[in-house]
């Protein structure tokens, strides 16, 4: 059962929901008097936050350069998942140019790129029909030469390559705080404290996190990273770019009837079940992984305006389209997950550098994770080692960036649109799941392997505990109940008196960050829970 944290209250008071120290500082809490708060500090040359494709690619290239020039370079990667790759979720269709440059002998090293794309299909869906659309050479949906991958497996392999080169990997350690020098430059990060009760008090096993100081700190947290959000404000990194826009991607893995399996086929669609005012689309990838496996997913732009829309239930409804049913019938769903993703395009990329650090990968919004890291290592190695290496001229850099971001040019949004009040929108009637093709939310979350230490403050923090009921429920009919793909948010009756309260089932959280983005009141601030908490994806 999900762990629930709330406080009993009368109808005349606001229930206490948030107990996290980022909202209620410990120096003002008498329960923390006399608790030892000193942190152990360690030094590295480069610290990388996030063990995803960008973070690991940057770490690998830095160590390659250091070894090539016989330089000692200590590179540390901290990753909040219990294992490298366990929080990674993507489609994924991988374009291998950057990998060829980073690890030319990746095939000999056993990289899990087992499925070259052999067939592309693109279509517009109506409720009952599929309208094929021709794919012309040069269009983003032309994937010949690319690979269909389980990105979590690929990231795990990248981690093995990094360790072979001497990169220090620290899975299970969440970067909770950015550290600064007196001059305002980034000094490094601090990992999360452990042993705090769900009421915000120190437990007997309380331990301070540790500090990791570095000459340069790279932030590769993925879309809408909670430290990157602070850095945007601290260094005004979004001053000269367009606003970021987002979507949520939901994904499942299925084992299907072998007669329906077409390894190497990549299918994409737009249209039904979304209306013409809602941005989104789908993918269906036939993987060659030794069994008849398909990865399927549905993306919904988070600029939708109807608060009754549920991305999860749109995903479940989409699977009942005749063109999908014919593939899935008789199959078995084995995995589920979700993640927010950037959609803003080239014009939404912020300034990437600041004193003492840099943003890489999906954190600032570059879908070309490995390539963004590829530029990063060149600049950093020059800075850290003071070696004379070739730096791209501005013209070369511009040409390379344009060529690698061309796939993003069709994702041009004008910025997020606010939700409309519930009174101005029609409720959406979704069909009940049949338990064969479509499923309910909690049985889906169970397939993600998600788990958190139950006795800790909810990491879904609220700036103001009164806002959910007074604003989100009153005006928008509680949209967090629908946009969360993991059943974290519920409005339930007060234990005494009339009215409702928000219940946060933090243990269900799959770390997708959608709530932090889509909350119409911008009252939710996602912060890291204790390290190792979250989903346990196996090759998503």
Which range best describes the helical content: under 10%, 10-25%, 25-40%, 40-55%, 55-70% or over 70%?
A: 10-25%
What is the number of helical segments per DSSP (H or I, 4+ residues)? 12
Low-confidence stretches: 1-12, 381-416
Structural Rg:
23 Å
Mean pLDDT: 89
Overall shape: globular
* Proper CATH architecture of the domain at 41-112 and 148-243 and 346-376: 3-Layer(bba) Sandwich
- If you consult CATH, what is the topology of the domain at 41-112 and 148-243 and 346-376? FAD/NAD(P)-binding domain
First and last CA, distance: 24 Å
Provide key terms for this protein.
540 residues, alpha+beta, FAD/NAD(P)-binding domain, eight-stranded mixed beta sheet, seven-stranded mixed beta sheet, 24 strands, disordered N terminus
Any overview of this molecule?
- InterPro entries: 4Fe4S_Fe-S-bd, ETF-QO, ETF-QO/FixC_UQ-bd, ETF-QO/FixX_C, FAD/NAD-bd_sf, FAD/NAD-binding_dom.
- Its cofactor is [4Fe-4S] cluster; FAD.
- It catalyses: a ubiquinone + reduced [electron-transfer flavoprotein] = a ubiquinol + oxidized [electron-transfer flavoprotein] + H(+).
- Its main location: mitochondrion.
- The chain has a domain at 41-112 and 148-243 and 346-376: 3-Layer(bba) Sandwich (FAD/NAD(P)-binding domain).
- It has helices spanning 53-68, 97-102, 151-164, 226-235, 311-318, 322-328, 369-385, 394-405, 441-446, 467-476, 480-483, 514-518, and strands at 41-49, 75-79, 93-94, 115-116, 119-125, 130-132, 147-148, 168-171, 175-180, 186-191, 194-196, 202-207, 211-219, 246-255, 265-271, 280-288, 292-301, 332-342, 353-354, 357-359, 460-462, 489-493, 500-504, 524-526.
- It is globular and about 65 Å long.
- It is α+β, with helices and mostly antiparallel strands and 540 residues long.
- The protein contains 12 helices and 24 strands.
């Amino acid at each position: 059962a999900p762990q629930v944290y709330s406080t009993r209250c009368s109808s005349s008071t606001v229930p206490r929901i948030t107990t996290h120290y980022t909202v209620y500082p410990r120096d003002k809490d008498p329960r923390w008097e006399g608790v030892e708060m000193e942190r152990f500090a360690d030094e590295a040359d480069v610290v990388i936050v996030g063990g995803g494709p960008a973070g690991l690619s940057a770490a690998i290239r830095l160590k390659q350069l250091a070894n090539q020039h016989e330089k000692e370079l200590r590179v540390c990667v901290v990753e909040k998942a219990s294992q490298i790759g366990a929080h990674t979720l993507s489609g994924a269709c991988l374009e291998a140019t950057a990998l060829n440059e980073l690890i030319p002998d990746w095939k000999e090293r056993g990289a899990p790129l087992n499925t070259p794309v052999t067939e592309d299909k693109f279509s517009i869906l109506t409720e009952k029909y599929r309208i094929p659309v021709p794919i012309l050479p040069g269009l983003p949906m032309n994937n010949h030469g690319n690979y269909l991958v389980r990105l979590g497996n690929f990231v795990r392999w990248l981690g093995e390559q990094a360790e072979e080169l001497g990169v220090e990997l620290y899975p299970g350690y969440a970067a909770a705080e950015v550290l600064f020098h007196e001059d305002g430059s980034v000094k490094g990060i601090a990992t999360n404290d452990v042993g705090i009760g769900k009421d915000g008090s120190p437990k007997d096993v309380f331990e301070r996190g540790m500090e990791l100081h570095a000459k340069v700190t790279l932030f590769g947290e993925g879309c809408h990273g909670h430290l990157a959000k602070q850095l945007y404000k601290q260094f005004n990194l979004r001053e000269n770019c367009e606003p970021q826009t987002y979507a949520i991607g939901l994904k499942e893995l299925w084992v299907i009837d072998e007669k329906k399996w077409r390894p190497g086929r990549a299918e994409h669609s737009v249209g039904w079940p979304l209306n013409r005012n809602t941005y989104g689309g789908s993918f269906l990838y036939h993987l060659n992984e030794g069994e008849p496996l398909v990865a399927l997913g549905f993306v919904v732009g988070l600029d939708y305006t109807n608060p009754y829309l549920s991305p999860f239930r749109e995903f479940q409804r989409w699977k009942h389209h005749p063109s999908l049913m014919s593939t899935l019938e008789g199959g078995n769903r084995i995995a589920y997950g979700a993640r927010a993703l950037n959609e803003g395009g080239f014009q939404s990329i912020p300034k990437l550098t600041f004193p003492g650090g840099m943003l890489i990968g999906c954190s600032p919004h570059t879908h070309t994770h490995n390539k963004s890291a590829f530029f990063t290592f060149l600049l950093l190695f020059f800075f850290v080692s003071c070696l004379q290496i070739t730096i791209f001229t501005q013209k070369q850099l511009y040409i390379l960036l344009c060529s690698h971001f061309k796939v993003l040019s069709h994702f041009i949004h004008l910025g997020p649109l606010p939700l409309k009040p519930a009174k101005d929108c029609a409720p959406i009637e979704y069909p009940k799941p049949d338990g064969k093709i479509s499923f309910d939310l909690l049985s889906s979350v169970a397939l993600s392997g998600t788990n958190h230490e139950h006795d800790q403050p909810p990491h879904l923090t609220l700036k103001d505990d009164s806002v959910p009921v007074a604003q989100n429920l009153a005006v928008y009919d509680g949209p967090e109940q629908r946009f969360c793909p993991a059943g974290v948010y519920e409005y339930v009756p007060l234990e005494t008196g009339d009215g409702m309260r928000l219940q946060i089932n933090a243990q269900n959280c799959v770390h997708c960050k959608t709530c932090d983005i889509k909350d119409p009141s911008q009252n939710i601030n996602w912060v890291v829970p204790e390290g190792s908490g979250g989903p346990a994806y196996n090759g998503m």
